[in-house]
Specification:
The chain is elongated and about 45 Å long. It has 46 residues and is an all-alpha fold.
């Protein structure tokens, strides 16, 4: 089994692959939210 099929199987099967995908998407949303707030505030801290 080559690496491409192994990675595909990891993310395609329910279980740990799904948890990784949801975690990455959630983290991306949190970073997007805080980065957007920082930009709107003009880069100032609290």
């Amino acid at each position: 089994m080559d690496i491409g099929n192994l990675v595909y199987a990891f993310f395609n099967n329910p279980g740990p692959g799904g948890v990784v995908v949801v975690t990455v998407l959630g983290l991306a949303c949190v970073i997007y939210y805080f980065l957007t707030r920082w930009i709107v505030n003009g880069g100032k801290g609290k």
